[in-house]
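To the structural biology subgroup,

Please find below the input and predicted structure for Cytosine permease, which we are adding to the shared reference set this quarter. The sequence is reproduced verbatim from the submission form. If anyone notices a discrepancy with their own records, reply to this email rather than editing the shared folder directly, so we keep one authoritative version.
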Amino acid sequence: MLGADDYALDRVPDSARYPWWTVAVQRFGQLSDLTVFLLGATLGAGMSFWGAFWSLTLGSVILEVVAVFAGIAGVREGLSTSVLARWTGFGRLGSALIGLVVATSLIGWFGIQNAIFAEGLHSLVGGVPVWTWSIVTGLVVTALVVYGFRWMGWVAYVTVPAFLLLAGWSVIGELSDHSLGDLLGTQPFGEPMSIATGATIVAGSYIAGAVLTPDMTRFNRTPGDVVKQTVVSITLGQYVLGLVGVVLAYAIRQADVVSIFAATSGAVGVIILVAATVKINDWNLYSSSLGFVNTLSTLFGLRVNRVVATVAIGVVGTALSAAGILDRFADFLTVLGVAMPPIAGIMVAEYFLVRRWRPALDEARATGGLPATEPTWVPVTLVIWVGAAVLGWWSEQEQFGIPALDSLVIGGVAYLVVGKLGLLSVGTREVSVAEAAP
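Predicted structure (tokenized):
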């Protein structure tokens, strides 16, 4: 069949796993793009270099911890995030909700990123309206994702080094006329920002990707591979490049550092920058398709091939992008993003600490299949999930603490307490997987 289903509802077998650097280059590609420079520039505009340093440190540590633990669960079980959620606290129907949130959120961001992609090509090439470029770029990314993880890896091998070479050339050229010591001592030039706010921005910029880490790490071979790729990709991609963005902002005295790359690199630079955008958007579409496939399976008993789901979602996202209406839903997508951190907190707490359904996963892993039984849903978990998400949203509105971390910790700790008290069984019905299917 055209494309690759990529074990959307099954365990990834050992024969389909990859060396750690093949997965790492894709994770690095998600983090090493224009947005990380803009992130650093935003921090530089509002705080001193050392304030930005600590914001990036705190935010990156949060992301690394979440990604490592969620990723280890993914590599051990070989399951996508939404499927793994069935046995990590959420049950069958809860995992369907996760799949729906993921699919809805990421199809929206796919469309928004595609619009940015199209506008970049329009400014470079022109010729046709932006909406036409939106259709072209959306269908190109959809075609790439249809062929799955392997092809996405090959694209990363090309675009990631090209982007880093371009970025290095542009940055060195811009900073060659400045003293690094003077730049590090530069005072911020924008609205003052606290370290907590900065750390929130850093963690929030990639928390959804960290939560969905199992979608990627199920293709790893060992937990050690997960740790290596996470530390390398987040440290270099989010941390180092973010600090470069801070220094760049001091050098040009503005937060718009993107113009530097276009100005110093010409048409080739713009092409590379646009290509780098693909490495974010292909994973938006990929994880969205996995969530959608799981939702259809759990709610309606339909086993839809991931290729079909990818094409459907890609066409819808492309159409919305071309229509130019997705920017109106950015606030809604941001609200959905608040629901992501507690998912990781709950899943990690269940898998590593409470272990209510861990024996079923361990037994099934030995045979390469899925557990024979599963909870239909776990009402207590859904209450914790909603409560933690609401508290995270509240802390963001009140600028209290670090919202992404707050909701993640609240969700994880609350689940741990409830699990240790033996309350997870309240309202929970355990059934065979065959019985649970509609």
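Summary notes: Residues 258-300 form the longest helix (43 residues). The two ends are 27 Å apart (CA to CA).

Regards,
Lab coordination
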